[in-house]
Specification:
Radius of gyration: 15 Å
Largest sheet: 3 strands, antiparallel
Number of strands: 6
Strand content: 35-45%
Helix content: 25-40%
CATH class: Alpha Beta
Number of helices: 5
Oligomer: single chain
Shape: globular
Distance between the termini: 32 Å
Order of helices and strands: HHHEEEHEHEE
């Protein structure tokens, strides 16, 4: 998990609310805590031939909103359906956990990500906020609702 998460932060520094420098300085215990199934958020890692090539997470807020977070696919593997499979996995997990709605925040200028989410049923909401630690980046909320 540490390797793929650091690769994601290094490749896409404006896509996460955490900096590469902060994560790189995590202790081994902090990394174990991040990967533990006992802690929120929970992460899925896409593997190909023994290599981590994608990452996605989910978490539930205090207000019980189910969030898709930390979506990333290795640059050499983009456009191969990995991102779609990761999004589908989070949607399925949400339903399994009793949630008919998933939300996320994305910069509308990140058209590749916004298009991926739109293809998987996410719609933009009128809610916007600045990215934590990078206030020049504006995020917009998207939601997906299960047909069930």
């Amino acid at each position: 998990m540490k390797t793929i998460f650091l690769a994601a932060l290094f490749d896409s520094p404006t896509a996460f609310g955490l900096s590469y420098a902060t994560a790189a300085a995590y202790s081994e215990q902090q990394w174990r805590d991040c990967a533990s199934v006992q802690t929120q958020p929970l992460y899925l890692v896409a593997m190909e031939q023994g290599q981590a090539v994608g990452l996605i997470g989910d978490g539930i807020t205090r207000s019980h909103e189910y969030h898709l977070i930390a979506m990333w696919v290795h640059p050499k593997r983009r456009g191969m359906g990995i991102g779609g499979r990761l999004v589908n996995a989070i949607q399925a997990r949400a339903i399994e956990r009793g949630h008919a709605r998933v939300v996320l925040r994305v910069s509308p200028e990140n058209s590749h990500a916004a298009d991926l989410y739109s293809r998987h049923g996410f719609k933009f909401l009128p809610e916007r906020e600045a990215l934590a630690g990078q206030p020049a980046i504006n995020l917009q909320k998207m939601e997906w609702r299960s047909g069930r």
